[in-house]
Amino acid sequence: MGRRGLTIGLVTVGTVAVLMTAAFLVVPGLRPTVSASQTTAAQPSAPELPTTPPTTTSTPTSTTSTPTNALTASQRDQLLDAVTEALNENSPKAELGFTVYDRVTGTTVLSTGADTPMYTASVVKLLIAIDSLRKNNWDTTSDNAEDITEMLEGSNDSTASSLWVEDGGTSIIARMAALIGLRHTVAATDPGQWGMAKASPNDVVAIYQYIDTQLPVNASQLIMSALAGSKSTADDGFPQRFGIPDGLPGSTWAVKQGWMVLKSSLVLNTTGVVGPNSRYVVVMMTQLRAGTSEAKGRTAVTAAIAAAKPAFVTS
């Protein structure tokens, strides 16, 4: 797929936290949490829209004199072993889905568990943003665009919940999965818990590729600028520099992080684009053993990303 070669200076962005108790889910950052009327009432139907965005002109990326990623199969295996060991050294028995896609060569550099559906937490806000822009005919000058920026820059849960309810709740996931061609993405059974949606790492790569290659330029830039302009701490107070930002110091990046505390596990996801001209799409999704502290979990994910650093061509 051709790329537009966005030239946005990249930084980082936010996430969501969901706490599952024995009886119900609490969503920190949604103070108050999603109300009973939101979780049980029939979701409003979204208006009928075109199945594809307006045609836009894409600027091909030049590959002249571009360094290639020449890892051998043995080197890839060694890096994946190092990633897994780094994660488990800090959080034993962690579940991992991980992939690194090179947009220049069109190849997957590293991959393990990449087709396994895992909890998205706030990463699902990317789908909420795309769906909302599409519903509003890709208008990036309206109050709706400001809401999307707020939702992504600060990973604002209240804004995400409002857009979720307004645009049809779980039908957002179904629409976006069909539109983008996501094979392992499903909504949560509880219609009020958008963060409990599941997607595979490869599906998240497809979402970033769709934003870059299929959205109108103005819509693509709105989303990526919001990710690049993210706050260092999410609106709910969670530190967001774990994973890609802290694990790849000196790199340019724009990320969508995700976290949830479940009864069964701690979910920490770090996803985004990395490197000059956003060369790599990086997706690491984890479920850490129940009882793992958030601080230790962040350390584990950051160490795992750092172990993969030799996979990235940075010059």
Outline the structure in words.
The structure is a single chain. The chain has 315 residues and is an alpha+beta fold. It has a single domain, classed as Beta-lactamase, CATH 3.40.710. The protein is 35% helix and 16% strand. It contains 10 helices and 9 strands. The strands form 3 sheets. Strands 4-3-9-8-7 form a 5-stranded antiparallel beta sheet, sandwiched between helices. It has a two-stranded antiparallel sheet with strand order 1-2. The longest helix has 18 residues.
Write the topology of this structure:
Layout: E1 19-20, E2 25-26, H1 36-40, H2 73-90, E3 95-102, E4 107-112, E5 118-119, H3 125-135, H4 143-153, H5 157-166, H6 170-180, E6 198-199, H7 201-213, H8 217-228, H9 244-247, E7 253-261, E8 265-274, E9 280-289, H10 294-307
Antiparallel strand pairs: 1-2, 3-4, 3-9, 5-6, 7-8, 8-9
